[in-house]
Amino acid sequence: MRSVRRPGWGRRARGTQPGRRPAVAPAGADARDEVHLRPCGPPEQRHGGARVDFSVYQLRTFWEVARTGSLTKSAKNLGYSQSSVTAHVRSLESRVGSPLFHRLPHGVRLTAAGETFRVYVGRILSVMDEMSVALKNKGEPTGRVVVGATAPLMEYELQEILRECRYRYPRIHLSLKVMSTKDVEAAVASGGVDVGLTFTRDTRERTGGTDGGLLREVLFSVPFVPVGPAAHRAGDPSPMDRVLVVDPDCASQEILPRHLASLLDEAPTLMETGSTRGALGLASGGLGVAMVPQAAVGCGSAPDGLTVIDSLPGALVHVQALLPDGGWLSPAVSAFLSVARRARDGRPAAVPGPSAVPVPA
């Protein structure tokens, strides 16, 4: 009796491994979703020696299930049948080698392995989406860049950089957040911002380096000057007894308290102002002294009754970019950094000379 071979049985599809069904994209998956991700490099660097092969449409299914916590809702949102969504998840779990979801009576919840997997899937999908947009725009950097910076930087030093970035890369959308130095570092580490900008006095960071899981690169230098009231009324407390600081953790704001402590043999009182303009206003009123960017004094908007104190030293402080130590930057972030690196033509500004009108100690 002649045997009849059923379709798809006993014959291995070209390019597949024995015992494995070929991965076929479901109906409704677009061309970009048919990409298969295979690790490069020697076998010993690939998931313990085994090749991990993911399809992007399966990763998108995983992402939606993780977001909704429901196979049924995910199937409806993606336009798949529930059985297809279940098959995608099981295929991923088979390749990963461990369950990605806890099956609950009403939905699903990520396992510990699933939580880890979600972090990397988010990065993969983000890169895929950015690549798709960049190709549609003929390679021009496109996307959103979230920049976290301290108040002195945001108020006086970023305007030219933002103007130049907007001119050169009109498809990049910048989102700015004013933060303290500690908050900037935490936000970069957690992914809350793409780029952090803070001040540093450590010249060893000029060539870049890692610290605390962050990549640090010095971009340019900013001169700071000490300011106080132009006149001191007899009988009033000396303004030298109080230092007005914008951010107590900022490298630029640590200079004046240390110097005055060495002169007075005791630490001066600190008053946080929250902004450089606030520090200028209080200093002009005789309520203390402050270390501010030179641009804040020379921009023509400084309050009356304010002067640079010649008896105290100025300082050159460096602006550094903080980046996640992951080794990859989006084209939009790279474009923003290229503009920031060209600030002041890459030359540090000179420390300005002091005022001829000292404030009595």
TrEMBL record:
Biased composition regions of type Low complexity, renumbered to the chain: 18-29
PROSITE patterns listed in its UniProt record: HTH_LYSR
Pfam families given in the database record: HTH_1, LysR_substrate
Alphabetical UniProt keywords: DNA-binding, Transcription, Transcription regulation
Residue segments, region Disordered: 1-35
Superkingdom of this protein's organism: Bacteria
Basic residues compositional bias, start-end: 1-14
Domain named HTH lysR-type: residues: 54-111
Similarity annotation: Belongs to the LysR transcriptional regulatory family.
Official protein name in the record: LysR family transcriptional regulator
Protein source organism: Streptomyces desertarenae
